[in-house]
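Minutes, project check-in

Agenda point 3 was the complex the collaborators sent over. CS summarized: two entities, 932 residues total, and the question is how they sit relative to each other. Sequences were read into the notes so everyone works from the same version.
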Amino acid sequence: MYPYIPNTQDDERELLSNIGIDSIENLFEDIPESIKLNRRLNLNRPMSEIEVKNHIENLARKNKSTDELICFLGAGAYDHYIPSVIKHITSRAEFYTAYTPYQPEISQGTLQVIFEYQSMICSLTGMDVSNASMYDGATATAEAAFMACDNTRRNSIVVSKTVHPEIRRTLKTYLYFRGIEYVEVEDNDGVTDIEKLKAVVSNKTAGVIVQSPNFFGIIEDVTEIEKCVHENKGMLIMNVDPVSLALLKSPAEQGADIAVGEGQGLGSSLNYGGPYLGFMATTSKLMRKLPGRIVGQTEDVDGKRAFVLTLQAREQHIRRQKATSNICSNQAINALTAAIYLTTMGKKGLREVAVQSTQKAHYALNKLNNTGIYKPLFNKPFFKEFAVKCNSEIEKINQELLKNNIIGGYDLGKDYPDYTNSMLLCVTEKRTKNEIDTLVALMEGIR
Amino acid sequence: MKEYNKLIFEISREGRVGYSLPQIDVAERNLEEFIPKEFLRDKSPELPEVSEGDVVRHFTLLSNKNYGVDNGFYPLGSCTMKYNPKINEDMAALTEFTNLHPYQSEDTVQGALELMYDLSGKLAEISGMKAVTLQPAAGAHGEMTGLMIIKKYHEKRGDFKRKKIIVPDSAHGTNPASAAVVGFEIIEIKSTKDGAVDLENLKAVLDDEVAGLMLTNPSTLGLFEKNIKEIADLVHEAGGLLYYDGANMNAIMGIARPGDMGFDVVHLNLHKTFSTPHGGGGPGSGPVGVREDLVDFLPVPVIEKNGERYILNYNKPDSIGKIKSFYGNFGVMIKAYAYILSMGAEGLKKASEIAVLNANYLMKNLKEHYNLPINEICKHEFVLGGLGKEVNEVTTLDIAKRLLDYGYHPPTIYFPLIVDSAIMVEPTETESKETLDGFIDAMIKISVEAKEKPEILKGAPYNTPVRRLDEVKAARNPILKWSKE
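CS then shared the predicted structure for the full assembly.
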């Protein structure tokens, strides 16, 4: 007996006799004997709900979450506050048990949510068109690179080394297998080295990828980069933190052709790395090059406003190998989450999140600097993350902090050999002065 | 109930808020002291200004215009819209999982790593593969990952001329699209009239430039590929690899395994076979399994067990590299894990048996009323060929739209492409005889209406929040965001 399988033995017999066969085995006679398993799968016996719950809760207890630990770790995944309303709405089964909205007449809920999500992403980025979501910020960046190559008919992508290492590694994989050249530009004091960038960007460059705030938390000045890319008729791809866009100039204002980023900070849980939200927006000109689902407004036969998946001639189920991307399933629930988050926080709230994060981050750096032990690694304007140079190994510092229930920063030496013994710290609006002061006091005590 | 037709932007009022945050407790400085003015935005982005109650009511009213598996029968072929157990949701919502930062030290995430390690082992057993990566975020992402592994395998052997992937014309659209993403040239082969691989057509294209063949088994027509062993031998003799699209795995769990059929690389869809919800389009999860000599090519990091400790191993020189941030859609993995625990070996097999039984029952009772191009025992799904043009020009689309009035989500339509006016029906094992009978009745009623009152079908649906949409208008004059009038 299985709670998810309603047919009883009597039902089974009735179905079999209606079909005109004797046993369930007859239904599998078309499978050659030589490839049948003919043994029990080596898995657990069926477990009751209580047993499942106990088993998984036991695993859960082996973790230490950010409820127990105070998180000063960012590096692409952010401990922003998640309003209670979000889980109440995303756990509505009408949303989460639905399929991709192929039948618009009974999918107006999902479709309107995506339309509103697209509108808000356009509003944040300043771009004209957004798609319905990508897997995460890294894959969205890789797809943007493909878009640039497709649109310019060029085969080389230039990426700044200040872009998140996780994104660069993903990008490298995608480009390698597609046969596209990957060119990396060194940083200079924590920002993209513009002279080095100019030296490698040419009329063969399809696109240049920069991140701002970059991996070190620093706000990049893209003025020169934008000029250089566009003089060479390439595309400027900007990877941005959506929360920062409440304060900072939008990618559109900075001349980006494609804006992408990680949208986890917009209400999605840390979830040990996923599911997250890749967002992607572009100009009207490039609208038909966008990968993934796009929702458009139209009318039904009675003239009523309605929403529908549109511009589908770009997509795999229509165009097959000529599609702009292979993406099918995306991150719809995370897009719903972002739409609810941006609605709940609203115009004022998102700004408040951004202001509190940046104010508290600056307070924290100042305090650390005052210890005389920890120095800013770079001297550049930053948003909510900053790098500090330490006197001891980062792993040692983090172990000490963990003993005091604090998750310390990201060890930059792992990805940047020049920046060993340096730590990237993140301060969101959730951190209190008291927590920051504790962090600083503990770090001061580590010699 | 009253109709609700507002966009969130249309109920926004200046000054209204839906959030509360604590007063800032550090000394505030003027922003421009640390962020130069030229970096700052002149105008805050336009976002809604509504109260918390407004938020809840707006999205609740929108959810009422949706239809999920919890609302009713969803026989969407190739999508496996089975019931999504609630315990799975509860387990994935445990805060010791949801509130874990991906870069926390391994010591603090041993439970998460153990769950992933255990899950990948279970999936390897179910698929008959040596090792499984959980990183791909969806089925198509799994295909891409698997094809990268295939490419890398040939390159590692020093064989750089294998630039072609063979895809049958019955394949899911993602198959050729994924092969293109990985830089392969696509060779499409025509299937036999019953949707199987045509061995002669296959032999004709197999040469030393072929990297592999992508196949789903059962096929998209819901039929088991009986010649699978021979196909595998042919592909392997030609030096290629065999890729398994796991979209149809729900037909064969515990009965036959892709690994035993000769497949070298396999992806599974946790959001189909393993009961995790589709979320209105995602997130999914598309783990990839490989045979023994391909294990070194799996994406990094690999979760390994070192004594009693679980670790993330990045030191894999032959790996294809990273394919996304972090480790995959962990939240989805927890749900699939809970499902496999609940079902166990016996339950998974039972699920496949009943999924196949239910499909055959529907097919048996619909074939007298609709065209059935291939009349043989099917697996978990089957494909009808509409009513035929002779019936008052009633199309498959008309039939689908009329089903909406009867309270059903229609089957997949116009796919696979090799069947004219296709209606692809997949009931899954989580539906009762009564539900199946109700659907059969509705389908028969529609076939009668088609003969007697075809105009009803052409005007359908009538009972839905909106009626048939002008899709041409949407594409010709795209309105893709709200803008202030």
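Noted in discussion: Residues 332-370 of chain A form the longest helix (39 residues).
Follow-up: revisit at the next meeting once the mutant set is ready.
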